[in-house]
Structures are given as structure tokens and as C-alpha cells.
Design goal:
There is one protein chain. The chain is α/β, with parallel strands linked by helices and 179 residues long. The protein has six helices and seven strands; from the N terminus they run αβββαβαβαββαα. The protein has a five-stranded mixed sheet with strand order 5-4-3-6-7. Strands 1-2 form a two-stranded antiparallel ribbon. The chain is globular and about 40 Å long. The chain starts with a helix and ends in a 6-residue tail after the last helix.
């Protein structure tokens, strides 16, 4: 009986290894990441090529992830202050049911983030995302400038400094879009 359980456990672990092997490696700094992110909550296809010319953040999150939920608030406020003409935040939900996704979107309805639901994991697999939070900061050309995986709230000031470094001086000097 114990041998049977060991064999079953070995088969289960083999299956996990195979699915992990199907993941693409995350796009590296300087690379153009996968352009198609799926559809936003209104059914509009999200193509990163449409956001070239501005700094774009693609962040993968889940409702059960406390740091992710805090991050969404910070990024939403940051986007409001900078303005959508210079900064776009695309928040991709990591493999969750529609109800969990909707609960977070409703709780954050005042945030002007672009939300994408990735229930099947197709987008997160293309990005090599295994855990959340996982953020990709893209420059004006749409290439990965910075990546952050599994960071804490303490890392957010440094991340914000990185994002600011990518913004044109005229954007940094103008009054906030919202406060």
C-alpha cells in the first residue's frame, strides 16, 4: 500500500514538472515581451503595441495575494498622478475564477487600471509567471526595462523610482493629473 502511494506521488510530481516545463522563460530586460495579453473586462483585446510611446506596467496578481492587492492600490494612484497619456498599468489576474477577479475589480473600481483576466493561464505561461506578484515595466519602445518577482511593500519606493526614471522630464515636471 505504501509503495502504491509513493508511485502515485511520483506520478503527480512528474506531471507538475511537465507543466512547469511548458512555461516560457520570463522576458528578459531589453526584450520585447509577448504582445497579446488577452481581453480586458469589457472584451477589448489588449495588444501591447497599442501602448508604445508610454511607460507600460504589466503586473500579474491574484486576489489571495496581499502584496498584490496593495500593489494595485499604489499603481492605480501612481497612474492617476502621472496620467494615462504617459503611464499605463495593465493588471493581469493569475488563474482565478471569474468571481474572485470581479470581487477585486469591484473593490478597486475607483482605480483606472486596465484589468485582464487570465483564467486559463495562457498569458501568464507565455510570460513565465509561476508566482505573484510578478511585474514587468516596459519602456517607451515596449521593451522590458525592469522586472520584479515576489517583492514586498518595502520594494515599492524603489520600483516607483525606476518607473520615474523612464518618464520624460516634461511629464515629471507637470502638475499631477489627479490627486
Amino acid at each position: 500500500m505504501a509503495m502504491r502511494w509513493l508511485l502515485l506521488a511520483g506520478l503527480a510530481l512528474s506531471a507538475m514538472d511537465l507543466s512547469a516545463a511548458d512555461l516560457q522563460p520570463p522576458p528578459a530586460v531589453g526584450e520585447l515581451p509577448p504582445q497579446q495579453l488577452g481581453k480586458d473586462r469589457h472584451g477589448k483585446p489588449i495588444d501591447l503595441a497599442d501602448y508604445r510611446g508610454k511607460v507600460t506596467i504589466v503586473t500579474f496578481w491574484a486576489s489571495w495575494c496581499g502584496p498584490c492587492r496593495k500593489e494595485l492600490l499604489v499603481l492605480g494612484h501612481f497612474q492617476d498622478v502621472i496620467g494615462k497619456d504617459a503611464l499605463e498599468v495593465i493588471a493581469v489576474n493569475f488563474k482565478e475564477p471569474h468571481s474572485d477577479f470581479n470581487a477585486v475589480v469591484r473593490a478597486n473600481r475607483k482605480l483606472a487600471l486596465t484589468y485582464v483576466r487570465d483564467a486559463s493561464g495562457a498569458t501568464s505561461d507565455l510570460y513565465g509567471v509561476k508566482s505573484v506578484p510578478h511585474m514587468f515595466v516596459l519602456d517607451h519602445e515596449g521593451k522590458v526595462a525592469y522586472t520584479h518577482l515576489g517583492y514586498s511593500e518595502r520594494a515599492l519606493p524603489g520600483i516607483i523610482d525606476e518607473i520615474l526614471s523612464l518618464l520624460p522630464d516634461e511629464v515629471k515636471r507637470r502638475p499631477p493629473a489627479k490627486s
